[in-house]
Amino acid sequence: MDLTLENLGRKGYKMYQPKEGFRFGTDTVLLSWFTASFVKDQGCPAMLELGAGSGAATLLTAARRENVHIDALEIDSDSYEVLEKNININGLEGRVSAYRGDVRSLPDEIRNKQYDLVFMNPPFFKPDTGPSSGKIGRYEQFGDLNDFIKAGSSRLIPSSGIMTVVMKASRADEVMNLMTLHGVKPFRFMPVHPFPDKKAQTVLIAGKKTGAGTNFEIMAPLMLNDEAVMHRIYEEEHKDCFI
């Protein structure tokens, strides 16, 4: 497999990813930023990424929040090998652990843990739909949206665990319904627009594993054409807090 080496632009981290096939993009960067905004500065929060691919969201989140430990789960053997390689080249062996496995049947090492925060960029498209049918990571070949959210909910700490998801906007209602079904109450919702006069293409959603009431908040929309905002997300030190 041919790989390219990218500079992630944060803490000097670098990342190998396949030259062909799924490569991380804006959705991954936004997920890591959104997720890191729910991490407290105190303690050492335990985090889990489901469907980590080559590890971009995990690496970027680890770079944003140096006090966290992240378990990263990936089913594809090639992506898993690159994920391990990326952990090693960034010296993250003590903070990030890679596991190969299926969200529909979690490895024992993950199934026996509970996490403060579970995050995911699940497949956007159902089989035989979308622009590039068959690409691993973009289609529901190894678990559908329900499988991902169910698995994530099962590992969250009751009453305080938080789940974050990035998804195409047309499936936002599905994400929130599935969160609710599996005991995770949506409480933050951020639409992502390419331009102010264009409809949202993706959404960022956070939910909490709790039986108590939560204050649901529709956050200010994120405009991808806003250079100042995107510079802050891509380039500046992480200061946002959405808790």
Written account of the structure:
- This protein is of the alpha/beta class.
- It has a single domain (3-235), classed as Vaccinia Virus protein VP39 (Rossmann fold, 3-Layer(aba) Sandwich).
- The chain has 7 helices and 11 strands.
- It has helices spanning 26-36, 56-64, 77-89, 108-111, 145-155, 172-181, 227-235; strands at 3-7, 14-18, 46-50, 69-74, 96-100, 117-120, 162-168, 184-193, 202-209, 217-218, 222-223.
- β6 (117-120), α5 and β7 form a beta-alpha-beta unit.
- The protein is globular.
- The mean pLDDT is 91.
SS strand fraction? 15-25%
Estimate the helix proportion, in percent: 25-40%
CATH homologous superfamily assignment: Vaccinia Virus protein VP39
Main sheet summary: 9 strands, mixed
Task: Decide which structural class fits the backbone.
Answer: alpha/beta
SSE blueprint:
Elements: E1 3-7, E2 14-18, H1 26-36, E3 46-50, H2 56-64, E4 69-74, H3 77-89, E5 96-100, H4 108-111, E6 117-120, H5 145-155, E7 162-168, H6 172-181, E8 184-193, E9 202-209, E10 217-218, E11 222-223, H7 227-235
Parallel strand pairs: 3-4, 3-6, 4-5, 6-7, 8-10, 8-11
Antiparallel strand pairs: 1-2, 7-9, 8-9
Short characterization:
This protein is α/β, with parallel strands linked by helices.
Please describe the structure with a list of short key phrases separated by commas or semicolons:
single chain, 243 residues, Rossmann fold, nine-stranded mixed β-sheet
